[in-house]
Write a structure and sequence with these properties.
It is a single chain. By secondary structure, the protein is mainly α. It has 2 domains: 86 residues, Tyrosine recombinase, N-terminal domain (DNA polymerase, domain 1, Orthogonal Bundle), CATH 1.10.150; 128 residues, Intergrase catalytic core (hpI Integrase, Chain A, Orthogonal Bundle), CATH 1.10.443.10. The protein is built from 14 helices and 3 strands. Strands 1-2-3 form a 3-stranded antiparallel beta sheet, with no helix packed on it.
Length: 298
Amino acid sequence: MDVHSLVKEFTIYLYIEKNRSQNTVDAYGQDVTRFIKRAKLKSSKAVKAVTPQEIISYIKSLKNSGASARTSARSLASIKSFYKYLVGEDIMTSNPAEVIQSPKLGRSIPTVLSAKEVEKILSAPNIKTPEGVRDVAMLETIYATGFRASELVAIKLKDINLEMGYISTIGKGSKERTVPLGEVATERIKEYRATARPLLLKNRVSDSLFVTRRGSEMTRQGFWKMIKLRAKQAGILKKISPHSMRHSFATHLLEHGADLRSVQQMLGHSDISTTQIYTHVARARISEIYEKTHPRAK
């Protein structure tokens, strides 16, 4: 089996047997392909002859070329997974990456928008256009639910119950969760479905809630471009990410007294320690507000 086939079989294994998302499969495949290319592994024999030192040198080269610690750690995880797969398939007898320790990563503080900044972004789209009505519905939905960007664009018509005001999604690990939609988001979706969505589809049929002019499902990349555009139109200078609304959703809930366990369930975190990062953000923001507004703070 040649090198290309090894990587292809590995990605199929991740998708079918390990039930990884398509985004994860793509990322792992790209990481492994990049390593094979940089290490000049032109045959399956060369792949099997790789030493731990060669993998360490590759990870160091990533760092020297400006890659972040997080990117380097993910690349190593991909390589480890690849060689673990080869061992499991009896293609190799041992995993040369297994002995390499992953770099310790400090948990980064997410960028959070203030309530006023969120309002500005929500008001940025031109609701006289079908795209504007759709974008408002998308932004209101992600802010109301805390969905990941990938979960937002994957919403199907069957996933929403506008009468009851809730929406379901399949998150990481194929875990389904249902969260409240909220009155405003519900109304924006109703408006979008009644007016803009038919204009975008032009008699075409789609089971996806959010669609483009081509009649296809909105992609993560499309949403990323859209939210960057709307933030720019709103005059937001912060570095916005596809998860900015999700981060803001969680932080604003905690600022207004929501308990951590409920926020964890709505975000779909399997471990509450992942959710706890938002308590640090909320405390920092409350402290900042206190410093600015309390007459005795200074």
